[in-house]
Amino acid sequence: APRTHWLFGDQLGPHFLDPRRDGPDAHAPLLMIEARSVLRRRRFHRAKAHLVLSAMRHRAAELDDRVRYIKARTYAEGLAEAGFGGGNGGGGRLTVCHPTSRAALDFVTARDGIDVLPARGFLLAQEEFGAWAKEHGGDRLRMEGFYRWVRREHDLLMDGDEPAGGTWNLDHDNREPPPRGSPALDVPAPYRPHEDEIDDEVRRDLDRWERDGEVAFVGRDGPRRFPVTRREALAALRRFVAHRLADFGRYEDAMLAADPVMSHSLLSVPLNLGLLDPAECVDRAEEAWRAGEAPLNSVEGFVRQIAGWREYVWQLYWHFGEEYRDRNALRHTAPLPGWFLDLDAEAVTANCLSTVLAQVGDTGWTHHIPRLMVLGSRALQDGWDPAAVTDWFHRCFVDGYDWVMLPNVVGMSQYADGGRMTTKPYTSGGAYINRMSDLCGPCAYRPTDRTGEHACPYTAGYWAFLHRHREPLSSNHRMARAVKGLDRLKDLDGLLEEIAERGDRAP
Ligand code: FAD
């Protein structure tokens, strides 16, 4: 008889059930466990809780008789209820695809009777990455080299041995400021799902749990914006490739206050729920380029995000090990201020930060530049504890999972790993935000002002950050020149005093 197969809530696509190549047994009965303790422990964004529950319950409805869906307090209780208590609890053998977090992996490997199958939903196996990493410098790995290797291995955007179009990297075409004078990009709107009775039921449950004081959330659970079924995910992918991919590249790093999505794909939620396989996403994009429907800079940019960054981050999560979570190379220890924890956009004067915090509160999503250069940069400049920042991102973003948060926040955003993930800290003064967005125009602060009533908190914070870490940063060849600039600042003392005076009040 086939072994029962346990599906985690981020393993919802058909590729998790394919019995070929070390998959679950053909026709295996399925088990899903909705464990409420996960929600109880931390204050998640309510839209995120909604998405995960809605996706799991939709999948269960599709699988119908084949799945046993158990609502329990914990996974252990759910397993016991399903008759897989292990030990004296009895039960047969279970299979499960390699989970996406260390905690879940430890849980399944520590129990008797569970066979862990290889991970799915990524392009490369961990062993393949391990071999590559060994060959390419162990600790000083770089995304670019990794990405080129993946392109060759998977024959992605290749013309024979050469990268399509003769170049690997079109980043320089993909950093344009937003078009001036227009509040939104002129591109067709992204796919929007329709809610159904399963969403209604999820809302009712969340209301009840909140009322009973069992769980507490942040953010608003407005109309659902992201796919939760395979059908919705495919429709979103199709719409993106057909109507929005062509403009993806050019404005990839730009921000517009009234158009938070711009040309981004909004595919991180269905990808991270396991509803889409990354291979199909990059293949569709490449087909669009080969058919002349999207320019190479956009297609290469999108392939780089998925086959490069997403895959790299997944591999590094396992490669760096558990200690990575607690890295704090810059010794930042300040707690997150209340206004930030509560997503209190109205408490914030700085227009960029207020706008982005409001987006997070409303949707649980912003694109990568607000995450990195507005939210993450604020945390870095103000010296907030990187583990607490990671926890905040994990809870507040609809696409946040342990594996994707750790390298992105500890490494990329907070430089808490001392440079294993990036070659320099990502932070900037207000000039960058001004160039790349329309957020500074209406702001009470001026990006050029370091001190005084109109001092931009990013500009002042940038110099204060360089000052605080002058010593380690001056030996970084990408930062040395910026650090030297400190010597020319006549108003550094005044600037530091003003920052100290602000304390953790909202800027
Ligand atoms: P697009 O811009 O359309 O990109 C296409 C896809 O590429 C994304 O859907 C995503 O799957 C993938 N991708 C791009 N960059 C990354 C990356 N750095 N890591 C992983 N995947 C990437 N992404 C998450 O999926 N979950 C997170 O919790 C998350 N946290 C982040 C935290 C910080 C501080 C930063 C700087 C980035 C984070 N990212 C995270 C990466 C990126 O911001 C989001 O994947 C992206 O904004 C999602 O929107 P999109 O689907 O429209 O992406």
Explain the overall architecture.
With 507 residues, the protein is mainly alpha-helical. The protein folds into 3 domains: 4-117, HUPs (Rossmann fold), CATH 3.40.50.620; 126-191 and 227-320, Serine Threonine Protein Phosphatase 5, Tetratricopeptide repeat, CATH 1.25.40.80; 326-502, Orthogonal Bundle (DNA Cyclobutane Dipyrimidine Photolyase, subunit A, domain 3), CATH 1.10.579. Helices cover 45% and strands 6% of the residues. It contains 21 helices and 7 strands. The strands form 2 sheets. A 5-stranded parallel beta sheet has the order 3-2-1-4-5, with helices on both faces. A two-stranded antiparallel ribbon has the order 6-7. Helix 2 crosses helix 7, helix 8 packs parallel to helix 10 and helix 11 crosses helix 16. The chain is globular, with a radius of gyration of 23 Å. The mean pLDDT is 95.
Task: Please name the fourth-level CATH homologous superfamily of the largest domain.
Answer: DNA Cyclobutane Dipyrimidine Photolyase, subunit A, domain 3
**Approximate shape:** globular
DSSP, total strands: 7
CATH architecture of the largest domain: Orthogonal Bundle
The helix tally amounts to: 21
Q: What is the first-to-last residue Cα distance?
A: 63 Å
Q: How does the helix and strand content classify structurally?
A: mainly alpha
* Major sheet strand order: 3-2-1-4-5
Main beta-sheet strand count, sense and barrel state: 5 strands, parallel
Run of helices and strands: EEHHEHEHEHHEEHHHHHHHHHHHHHHH
Total discrete domains: 3
Ligands: flavin-adenine dinucleotide
- Please report which band the strand proportion falls in: under 5%, 5-15%, 15-25%, 25-35%, 35-45% or over 45%: 5-15%
* Low-confidence sequence ranges: none
